[in-house]
């Protein structure tokens, strides 16, 4: 059965949701699934999510353009000149590469499950609550004393593995990586900055890989047209850029408990709607 055509209102709203939630530790994919089901009665789909993430990743590329350019230059310089391999930017280049491997491998192996069963609202609501407790534990037990200059390869591997958990909607990419960073003793700002850089290769690759599927009519769910995908992606970019700046300022002086409370409340609300039959899980 052919899915319904997405309306312009749905494309605009979902693009805004993507931009607002991508960088906050509350799960953008989970929010897109919840909002599209509760307000529009259907699923926007994993491909729509992946493609609109290109907008938010473009925001990261522009916001961190100077850092990214410096890291790339230092990485290539260090490859040919061993005396530069102690530079933080050279090491950061390797940490991003190393940290991207887990999500790349698992994303490829479990692509079909991510697009189908993992989008069940029972699972998403449960993960919102369960991972809220993980974030709370990271905030409570994390020493938060290590600056970004103290990053090591071990940190990249662990935080990269945590990023892979975000393949499950409801977990949150930034929530996973920032929590792992806090458990490792990093400051919130250091964990958030590395989290943003680490997301770039994985999300860009995911979005580009999903482009062909996004233009194919879905058997179920909402079907977005090319112009709708473009507008939603541009909206996600604009709001996402503002979200990056806000979060980096917020984590300097505020704890992650604010997001913990929100995740638990949202998870409980969705579970209640599911239990009473107000919304469908699939």
TrEMBL record:
Enzyme class at the top of the EC tree: hydrolase
Q: What's this protein's name?
A: Undecaprenyl-diphosphatase
Question: Catalysed reaction per UniProt?
Answer: di-trans,octa-cis-undecaprenyl diphosphate + H2O = di-trans,octa-cis-undecaprenyl phosphate + phosphate + H(+)
Q: Tell me which family the UniProt entry assigns to this protein.
A: Belongs to the UppP family.
Location(s) in or outside the cell: Cell membrane
Molecular function as annotated in GO:
undecaprenyl-diphosphatase activity
- From the record, give the transmembrane residue ranges: 92-110, 122-142, 162-184, 191-209, 229-248, 260-281
Kindly give the InterPro entries that the UniProt entry links to this protein. Answer: UppP
Q: What else is known?
A: Bacitracin is thought to be involved in the inhibition of peptidoglycan synthesis by sequestering undecaprenyl diphosphate, thereby reducing the pool of lipid carrier available.
Biological process terms from the Gene Ontology for this record are:
cell wall organization; peptidoglycan biosynthetic process; regulation of cell shape; response to antibiotic
Topology in membrane: Multi-pass membrane protein
Per the UniProt entry, the Enzyme Commission number(s) are 3.6.1.27
As recorded in Swiss-Prot or TrEMBL, the protein's gene is named uppP
Q: Which GO terms describe its cellular component?
A: plasma membrane
Role of this protein: Catalyzes the dephosphorylation of undecaprenyl diphosphate (UPP). Confers resistance to bacitracin.
Database matches in HAMAP family: Undec_diphosphatase
* Keywords per UniProt: Antibiotic resistance, Cell membrane, Cell shape, Cell wall biogenesis/degradation, Hydrolase, Membrane, Peptidoglycan synthesis, Transmembrane, Transmembrane helix
